[in-house]
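Progress against Task 2.4 (sequence-to-structure conversion) is shown through the following example record, which the project officer requested during the mid-term review.
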Amino acid sequence: MKKIVAYLTLFLMLLSPVASFDEIVFSEELQPRTPNLSFQVTPDPIGSMELVSLNVNIDSSFNELPNPAKICFDVPSILIRQSSDFKNQELPDYLTWLNTKDDGTITHICYQIDTTGQQYFSFSIQFTSALLIEGSVEPRYDITATLDEAETVTDTVSTNPGNTGNPHFAKFRKFATDPIDGLGLLDLNFPNYNTYELIFNRDFSNDFQNVKIQDQLATGTKLNASFPGWSEIPGNRVSINGLRIYQVDETIPPNQENRKYVTEQFVDKIIYNEESGCFDVNLGDVPKNISYIVQYAVEVSDGTLGTYTNSATLTRDLDVSITKTSTEKIKSNGSGKGFFEKGVDKNELTLPDRLITYQLKVGGEGYTLPAGTIFFDYLPEGVVFKGIKSNVNDTFELVSIEDNKVTFKTTKELVNYTEDLLFETEYTSDVFPINLNNTAYIQKDTGTYYSNTVSTNVEGNHSVILTKKEEGNGNVLKNAHFDLYNSSGTVIKKDLTTNQEGQIVVEDLALGSYRFIETVAPNGYILDETPISFEITDSQQEPIQVSKINKKILGNVLLTKTAETNDGKKLEGAIFKLQDFNGTLLKENLVTNSEGEVFVDGLLPGSYQFIETKAPDGYKLDINPVEFTINGDMEETVMVNKTNSLLSKVPEEEPHTESLPNQNLPTDKNDFDNTNSLPLLGESVQSIASFLGLSILFIIGMLLSIRKKRKN
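Structure tokens generated for the chain above:
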């Protein structure tokens, strides 16, 4: 029994390191994979006629959120001025209003979230609080947010009711509020989002006289002239630099539209000074049943000022005044969305290639990722980290490498960003085929979230490379044609042709035996149909290398030497040399045999020439080249011919005979050659004497002429 216990203990000890390794490697996968929903209501407490923000933050791992997702809010109806606020506001492009339902106690509002390619979201939904009368509202209320009917978060807020009897005046913004510091978030890129409303007499409490509103815009802002107003409000939408006025009539029943644009009634009572950034609106006398709302948007002209304070002052009856202020900052993380992706450069890895490049890609639009955000990656077994390959903006920093865990962090805050980190790894194991799965993680304040999973399938090498070479020098040969046969003798690849490198590459072959057979040799080479056999095995890590050697087709030439006579006598003893096209001497002392022939074999394709260096006895030497060409596809001997003419004979001397002056003499060299005779000696002397006599007479005449000219 003790032995069994000892063996069991030893087994557990051996198993424990494996278990702990698995725990280290896959600890993130053991975490609950439920998206994290953060929810906060601002301001707290909520006052009368204030802009209230429902601030949402969602963090999730890859594919945790359905597409589309849905988020719903439950708000006590007594806190809401008008439920249409939830529909009639600027929403991020991924958010769509679905419905608003009011049961008299709770108003239920739902939105649809397009989660395509995104994993985390940050946005705010705004509404204007109702006129909260002291004694008619509770001190605290619960407001809830529910994500996909699965996760619900509740925020309890206080109320700060006001008093009636005074002209009620409120200034509020219709855009996002930072839940931390309560500042509004101005959008640099979309000025139509930066909307304000100045509300007078929303409680319909009294008749008022001489009502004026003056608004001093924040430094670094100006009226956005392109602001279109709200399309759902009827009436003439004329504006003054994008500023409009609409009224709410208490006498119109609640089930009818009681709003209407009335800007045209105040065109001459609105003054805007663009230089000072101040505008005045003179509403005049306001009856009890009418509430006026001045609506405008601002464009940020200087985004470097930090905070922007906008103040509006209402006066009535010339002495009563109320001032409201609103302070904003530039939006960095108001309404936004972001993603975290994993990528890989190879879905298939064929040995001997072992390098894999992984990509971490993070992006955000209107979303801020803090400096120091941690990313980590558990590399698959057998894969080792080699180094960072690309980190263009120095956004990421390598923190540590522990076993197969590689940790990075961001070096700076990322706002409206898309950043890539590429790092190189190597598969070092000899285990294949195998599928390598890889997932990365991001660590945030709300938890750890994982990316998508990428896969690389590692396969052995099932390819072959045939290299065609020339015999002797080993030069590679292109344009050789082969067929590839399997072990059954079936052609599986036909007319494969060697490329510029003299190679044929065939990939992804099934396990088994094969053979190449040459069908067409390169031009100038001898076809060799001997099979080249090889085998593809499951342990193969590199392409099989096979080769085929080809011999060149060599040519022959036969030169025949003949006499330039009618019988074409064959001449023995003529000597020639052989040159190539460039005049390089290849052979010399080639002597014609008794048949007048010189035979040369083993010539490579190209152009050549014979040159005679010695003529046969009694024949003239002819150094004119005898040119010929050896073609690579020639099978017959090239036949060339060279003829020689006889040398001229010298006749025997004959006795001297006087020639008559008019005797016919040869007139040129050809006449001498044709008669096969030379001039007689007497004829030569006579001719010379005549020539000398004439010359003497010519000289005497010239001298006499010169003498006569001198006397004159």
